[in-house]
Each structure stands twice: as C-alpha cells, then as structure tokens.
Amino acid sequence: MSKPILKTSHISSKLGAEESFVYLARSLELKKKGVDVISFGIGQPDFQPPPHVIEYAKQAMDSGFNGYGPSLGMPELREAVSDFINEEYGVDVKPEEVAITAGAKAAIFIGMLALLEPGDEVIIPDPAYPLYESVARFIGANIIFLRLHRGNNYKIRYEDIERLVTNRTRMIVLNYPENPVGSTMDQRDVEALVDLAYKKNFVIVSDEIYDHFVYEGKHFSTLQTPYWRDVVYYVNGFSKTFGMTGWRLGYVVANRDLISKLSVIANNMYSCPVTFAQIAAAKALQDGLEWFKPILNQYRKRRDLIHRHLGSIKGVHVFKPEGAFYIFPDFTEIIKAKGLKDERELADRLLEEKGVVVLPGTAFSKDAGKGHLRFAFAVREEDIEKGIERIKSWLES
Q1: What is the Rg, in whole angstroms, of the alpha carbon atoms belonging to the chain?
Q2: H helices within the chain, ranges in order?
Q3: Among candidates 283, 292, 207, which has minimal Cα distance to 242?
Q4: Which residue among 145, 231, 239, 330 sits deepest, i.e. has the most Cβ atoms within 10 Å of its Cβ?
C-alpha cells in the first residue's frame, strides 16, 4: 500500500464542487449507454455564439493574436466593455475601471480574494450560486445566509439584508437575476443597498451576468447608483448572453485603484485571458445585441411553458421567474407523499429511472433549497414538454 504523500491539503478541502458539473458527468455516462437524456441541469445556453463572432475569433487567430496579453485584459476589450456598459446604462465607466478575466468565476474568485480577510462577515443569499459560499469559506470568512423564501417570491430585499448587517460585515453578495430561482431586484432595493454599503463601509459584489435575460421590465444595475465607485465590485461576462461558455471571458468593473491591484492576483492565477477570444468579444460588443432579441423572446416562451407545465402538477409550488433561465419549484409535498428521503433522492431517481436531469435545491448554498429542484430551461420547447411528461409519469407510477 502506497504512502499517503499525495493527500490533499486542509485548505483545498474548503472548496466545494459545483454539482451541476457532477450531474452533467452522470448524464453523459447514461448517454454513452444509449439512454435518451433530457437535461435541465447545467446552466448553459443552447445557442451557439453568433456566426460573425466566431468569424472574428478566426480572423484574430489568423492575425497573430495567439500569445500572452496583459493580465487585466486587452485594451481593445476593456474599452469596448466600458463603451457597451455606458451605452446600456447611461453611466461613465472608464476603460481603466474594467478588468477582463478568465470567466466570471475567476472575476468572483479574485475579487473575494482581494477584498476579504479571514473572519470577515459575508452575507450571501440562500439559495445562491454555490461559488460564493465556496470561495468565502476558502478564504476563512464567516458566512451569514440571507434566507430567500416563497413568501416574497424569493427576492433579495433591502430590509432583510439591513437586519443582518453588523459592524463586522465586510461584504454582501448580490446575484440578480438570481441563480437558481430566477428572481430579480427592484430598483429601490438596489439603490438602498448601495447607499447602506456606503454609510456602513462594506463592499457589494454584484454578479449581474444574467442582466439581458429579463422577461418583464428592464434590469437596473448597481453601476447606475451614485456610490458605485466606492462600494461596488461588478461582475459580468460573455457566457450567457453571447453563448460563449467555453471561451472563458468575464469582466469586472470597479474603481481603478482596486482594478490595478487585481492585476497581481490575475497574473499569478492564469497569466491572462485568451487573447484572440478578447479581440472577437470586443468586436461583438461593438456590433450590439440586435441579434439577441429573438433569442430573449424564445426564452420567454420557454419560461412560460415550463412554468405552466410544472404548475399543473398537483403538490408542486412554483414561482414564475422574472429573469435568468432557471425555475425552482418546491416538491416538498410530493417528496413526503412518495416516501422519499429528500430532494436529492428525487433528483437521483428521475435521472436513473427517467433520464431527466434536474439539480437538487440543496446544491445551492444552505437550507432554503430543501424540497426544491432547479430546472434550467435552456432547452428546446419539445424537450421541456417531453421532460415534464416523464416526470409526471414517474410521479403517477
């Protein structure tokens, strides 16, 4: 028997795996065995990047953009991001207030690494994208969970956060439209929270990567508030709106002093983002998002379809998402009626017995996901109908 020399460190064990990738691997194994799998699992748009963007990447490679670039990103893309945001939100972001990262995940990781000390208090929604909790625990921060609930449509409200803020609060994490529930934030709550952060001296990490997947009304950004340069660390990227998940391009907007300090962390972690992809992304932003409008309409139809079908299942309670492409129904009554242990057993049974991939709600932070399942409706309408029919037939069996 070999010596346990290659055992992992204590600090690495603090990082948690994102379960959507675990279920993705399991579904791929089933597909290899010939199972017809319908996946509502991983949050990946089912459309390709626009053909003109792919062509831009090819042209950039042919032009020699294949080497290292600056750790904070290519100047062309930093300028294009600032121009795009300024036009989108009527603000005045400067290129030197933008950093390009190797995906939005890296943007969150390096930001929390730069801004948090062990023992700092971090307020994180529950349920929420699991990366926030994972990185905060890795750093040694103390996590305070903000419980989202069905009673107020899972919204992040100013009053609920204000009650949790103490003199030890260093950071609040916002994600809106929110993964996994699809809720978004009202303008009054965004403005009040940024104002509170300014008065109480804490940071807001605002993950707004689903900002263009809003089905009613318009997204109001933290960058539209007066004090954003003092307290906001804004995160976005190209994975969702542009369907460029594998290109690994995200970006940060923050005050220029913080941006300059991120350069050292980025340099140590990944040297630089992919150069030819950045050139293509810059041109994509300059072209605008007219092509995206029919895609948004398509996703709105899918949202309505899956909400209607899930709502027709007796015992299921479901909130109609306002944004993103996730829906988070409560199956608690059904889990009890079927004599199941919990939502994880339900997700596992649906995968193994019906070839339907859904994620257990407790894959998203702490306790609020108990009894829930997350469905990503980034799939064809016929697959939504087929998948829900399979679930209904399993429940009726």
Answers
A1: 21
A2: 19-32, 51-62, 75-89, 104-115, 131-139, 158-162, 187-200, 228-231, 256-270, 275-287, 293-311, 332-337, 343-354, 381-396
A3: 292
A4: 231
Its pTM stands at 0.94
Q: Give the 3-state secondary structure of residue 299.
A: helix
**Rounded to whole angstroms, what are the CA distances from 319 to 149, 183, 283, 323?**
10, 9, 38, 12
CA–CA dist 204, 191 (Å, integer): 12
Q: DSSP readout, 188-229? A: HHHHHHHHHHHHHT-EEEEE-TTTT-BSSS----GGGSTTHH
Number of H helices, E strands in the chain: 14, 12
Distances (CA, A) of 295 to 214, 301, 376: 12, 10, 15
At residue 25, the pLDDT reads 79
Number of neighbouring beta carbons within 10 Å of residue 159: 8
Where in the sequence is the domain holding 275, given as residue range(s)?
Answer: 51-290
Span 371-394, pLDDT tens digits:
999 999 999 999 999 999 999 999
Exposed / middle / buried, residue 233 (Cβ in 10 Å: 0-12, 13-18, 19+): buried
Tokens of 341: 């242990």
Sign (positive or negative) of CA dihedral 183, 184, 188, 190: positive
| Chain mean pLDDT for the chain | 94
Q: How far are the Cα atoms of 122, 176, 250, 279 from residue 74, in angstroms, in the given order?
A: 32, 27, 13, 8
CATH number, residue 91? 3.40.640.10
Q: CA distances (Å), 70 to each of 75, 235, 257, in order?
A: 8, 19, 17
Shared domain check, 140 and 96: yes
> With contact defined as beta carbons under 8 Å apart, do 69 and 212 qualify?
no
Number of Cβ within 10 Å of residue 393's Cβ equals 10
Same-domain pairing of 125 and 237: yes
Grouping H, G, I as helix, E, B as strand and the rest as coil, residue 113 is helix
* Burial class, 247, CB count within 10 angstroms (exposed 0-12 / middle 13-18 / buried 19+): buried
